[in-house]
Amino acid sequence: VLNNAAFNNGHQGLTAHEIRDAAYSGNLVYGNGFSSSEEGEGIMIWRSENVLVSANTVHNNHGFGIRIWEGLVDGGSAPVVENNLLYQNQGGGLKISGTVEDGRVYNNTIVFNTNTGLQLGDMISGFEILNTILAGNQPQLEYDGGAWFDYNLYNPDVLFPDKGEHSITGDPLFISVEEQDFHLQPDSPAVDSGNLLLSVSSDIEGTARPLGAGYDIGAYESTAAGAIFQDVPPGCYGYDEIEALYRAGYIAGCSAEPRLFCPDNTMTRAESAVFVERGLHGAAFDPPDPEVVVFADVALEAWYADWVDGLWLDDFTAGCSTDPLLYCPLAEHTRAEGSVFFLRLLMGKDYKPALVEGLFADVPLEEWYAPWMEEAYRQGLLDPCLEEPEMRICPEEPLSRAEAAVIMARAQGLVGQ
Exposure of 363 by Cβ count < 10 A (0-12 exposed, 13-18 middle, 19+ buried)? Predict the structure, then answer.
């Protein structure tokens, strides 16, 4: 049973009853059991043998996300539960009960389920619970024996004597709990902390395991880059700043699937309006829709209309032309223009730098942007484009999205300079 969607059923989402040698993999299962009289498990495996339950995303079901109950009467059951993401199920995350023998529970992410995260009955035997994240469940674990635990991550701590000498306690540092993005941040304690001897060769998304010094704990293996955006790997210019802005909620990137930032694209004036307004009002700011046209080239239905209008109301822009009044939303920013936007974000809308020392060989003292670029450099916002044999700042060069992110993150104090 592969790659199905099972949702909003009155009883179970997917069910196996008295079957052998089957696989339930790659399924999306949610919202089942909407009738209060039904338990409504997401995936129910009942009196079956040698069933693989892997790489499923199971959430918001009325009962347990996954329930395995009883093996076949004429033999052991040996279920394998690996690489599943189970969250916000009302009955609990994973339940294994009845006479169930010799099972594996590897590399699952079981989080924020009501009632319990993992429930193991008193008749199970020979189970291994490894490389699994249990976090935010109420409670984390109900356990009566018959299993070996190790290399798991618990948050909060689970107080029982045999939870495993290699298991850890702490915040798993998911990318975004609010957006149900349970990938691991690069500095998550779950990265490289799993058991290296496991035979799970890929994660819930098919990413090869292991990529680092060890298996990552949980359903997701952090990529070799460990990066939020596929096109911004570690070592890339702006990596720390772009990741910090994303985690703080200031940016979403240029593509959601796959998640991309487009760091080499030039920042437009429309995009800079979003940066500055969020910098002024906070990452969660959502400006109201304008009711009147201010700039002749910013239609009310344009995606950026509310952001540009907010920039105008906050007195952070006078536009690019006064007669007629234009904003030039699709015009590309230069590094000189970017220094003005972000210095005013840092210092206030009325700020006007005055000091000019002649720091850069390519910035004539009489140019309008000379004090802005020098002050942006002194404040640690803007890096030179060349330091030897003479320092240059490239004022007329396009301002890339990566460069804008670096300046924004520094202006907001999200990273060191």
Answer: buried
For residues 300-304, give the mean pLDDT. 95
First-to-last C-alpha distance (Å) of the chain: 52
Q: Give the C-alpha distances (Å, rounded to integers) separating 336 from 98, 263, 397.
A: 70, 18, 8
In whole angstroms, give the CA distance from residue 90 to residue 116.
9
CB proximity list for 346: less than 8 A, separation 6 or greater = 379, 381, 411
Return the SS3 of 113: coil
pLDDT at 225 exceeding the cut of 60: no
Structure tokens at 131: 């490389």
59: part of which helix (H) or strand (E)? strand 57-59
pLDDT tens digits for 281-296? 988 888 999 999 999 9
Between the alpha carbon of residue 379 and those of residues 352, 356, 413, the distances in Å are 14, 14, 12
Nearest partner of 25 among 43, 7, 11, 8, judged by Cα: 43
**What pLDDT, in 10s, does the model give residues 264-287?**
999 999 999 998 899 889 888 889
Q: Is residue 228 over pLDDT 60? A: yes
Residues near 121 by beta carbon (within 8 Å), at least 6 away in sequence: 95, 96, 97, 98, 100, 144
